[in-house]
Each structure stands twice: as structure tokens, then as C-alpha cells.
Amino acid sequence: MTSIGLAVAVGAAAALIGRWLRMPRVAAFGLAGKAGLGVFWGCAAVLALPLSEHAAVGTLAWTGYVLEIDAAVFAARGRSLLRSRPDAFLWLAVLSVFLWLPFEWYNERLAGWYRSGLPPDLSRYVLLGWSFACVWPALFETADLLLALRFKRCRDDTAARRPGLALSCGVAAAGAILLLAPLALPRLDLGEHLLPLASAGFLLLLEPWNAAGGRASLWIDARSREHSRLLALAGAGVLCGLWLDVLNHFSHAKWHSLWDLTSAGTLFELPWLAYAVLPLLGWQSFAMYEFAAGLLHLPRCELGVPGDNAIQARIAEQRPL
Questions:
Q1: How many CB atoms lie within 10 A of CB 76?
Q2: Which residues contact 44 (CB under 8 A, 6 or more apart)?
Q3: Which end of the chain is more exposed for a tag (fewer CB within 10 A), N or C?
Q4: Residue 58: CB partners within 8 Å, gap ≥ 6?
Q5: In the 3-class helix/strand/coil scheme, how is the chain assigned residue by residue?
Q6: 251 — phi, psi (to 5°)?
Q7: What distance in Å separates the CA atoms of residue 12 and residue 102, rounded to the nearest whole number?
Q8: Contact (Cβ atoms closer than 8 angstroms) between residue 156 and residue 67
């Protein structure tokens, strides 16, 4: 199945690159993007070829990925998460570490995966922290690229169609139940299959609070029939999960899934069925970030926001919106 997995990953990347090359661009790709491109493909070459490898190569690849995707979005729109709001992007990376820790805790309880190949000294935790800091930036940059490729702006109409109190409390309660259920059940061989409940739980628990607090909300997006951000985040979850699976397969320092679904077939480490829940990764990441950034009053990264009027006019001259 490795060859099929590679074909799927390369095909997805080729489709995005082809779409980007055909679209009008309003800015240069930039030195940071070229550096990220070199880092990513250099790390990919080290992983693919029988060369000596350090445990940091896979994490370096994701750092390069974030830089190259950010440059691609900036070239298309004249605005990107990193270049337009570096302060918000820095907080995004910092929050990413702490927002991922609950899933590490759930994994300790449910045994969904384990890692190998990491150094035994303190550098192990540096590498883990660095990799955790890449999770939310990679997901958000990928979603922003998907939105840029469609020339679509997300409407943050937070004042419209807010859910009622009773419905909000019911949804939040359902999310709390999903978060508590895996912890209340005894640790069985099926424990790893309960990990997606944590993603769904955070999504359902936090979305009503985001909507009620006037923050960007996927719930309001859905109720107002503005599905661009929903689809982009779902696509980001699937694409980042796919490329993570590829890089992980060839990496020396890797994680190993304990999902016993191999009878249905696997691409690399993840079974095919696991990809069905990857959209949850994009949705819950957005809900968690909006809640945390709003609670701490941090500058926020916004997805799908176009550049200034002059740049948008140049885009409109080349291709109708």
C-alpha cells in the first residue's frame, strides 16, 4: 500500500501546486518561501534516501512546510498569517504547544500511539515541543492556502444567527460527555478508537462559547451557510494528516499507531478508516484556538482574509472573483 499512499500524497500536492501556478499572483514568492521550500524538500530527500538521519529532520520538514505555504498564500493574496500578523502567528505557535498537550494526556490514558527514535536526553522534549508548535500553524496555513486558491473570503458574521441558550447548553453538555466518556470507561483494547471523541468533544464544548462570545465560530458559519472555512479546515485536517503519515513512514523518529483497523487497509501508519475522522482535526483546532486566544485576549490569526483594496483590485483585473 506504500506505493498507493505515495501516489495519493503526490497527487494531492501536484493538484494544489498546479492550481497555484495557474492563478494570478500579486506578490513574489519571497526569500522565506524559497528557504522553506529548500528545507522541506531537503528534509524529504534525507528521509527518502538511505542517508544518516537525525530525529529533528521530520520536524524541520514541517517548519519548511509552514514557511513555503505562507509564502504561497502571500504571493496569491498579498497577505498571509505570518507576514501580515507575525505577533499573532507567534502566539499561534506558542498556543499550539499547550493546545496539543490534552491530546498527549488522552493518549496516555487510551494508548492510541507511541513514539520511537527520539533521543533519550533533554533534547527529546525540545524536539517534541518544536513539533507540537508546528501543529496549529501547519493546519491554519493549509486551510488559508485552500481558501486563497478559491479566492474566497470568509464572512465573520458573528452577530447573526447566534444559537439560543438552550441549544448552546445542550451542545456544550454533549461535548463534555464526549470528553469524559473515554476517561470513565475502563482501559480496554478498544481504547485507541475513543481518541476521536476528544476532538469531537472539544469542538462541541467550545463552539457554543465562541459563538456566544462574539468570536469566529464554525457553528455560525454553518448556520449562515458560509461553508468556505468549514471545508478549508476539513481539507487541511485531511491533507496534513496525509502528509504527516508520509513523512512519518520514512522518518527515523516516528510515531506508531495502535489502531487495530489494518484489516481495512492502511496507507502508511494510519488505516484508511482513520482518514474519515481527520476533518475533526481541522475543526477542533479552530475551535480550541479561537477559545484560547479570545480568553487570553491575544492577537488572532484570521483565515481567508484578503489583502488590501489595491491588491484585490489587481486580482479582480486578472480574474473575476
A1: 26
A2: 61, 247
A3: C
A4: 43, 47, 131, 247, 248, 251, 253, 254
A5: CHHHHHHHHHHHHHHHHHHHHHCCCCCCCCHHHHHHHHHHHHHHHHHHCCCCCCCCHHHHHHHHHHHHHHHHHHHHHCCCHHHHCHHHHHHHHHHHHHHHHHHHHHHHHHCCEEEECCCCCCHHHHHHHHHHHHHHHHHHHHHHHHHHHCCCCCCCCCCCCCCCHHHHHHHHHHHHHHHHHHHHCCCCCCHHHHHHHHHHHHHHHHHHHHHHCCCCCHHHHHHCCCCHHHHHHHHHHHHHHHHHHHHHHHCCCEEEECCCCHHHCECCCCEHHHHHHHHHHHHHHHHHHHHHHHHCCCCCCCCCCCCCHHHHHHHHHHCCC
A6: -85, 150
A7: 30
A8: no
The position carrying cell 513555503 is 68
Report the amino acid identity of residue 7. A
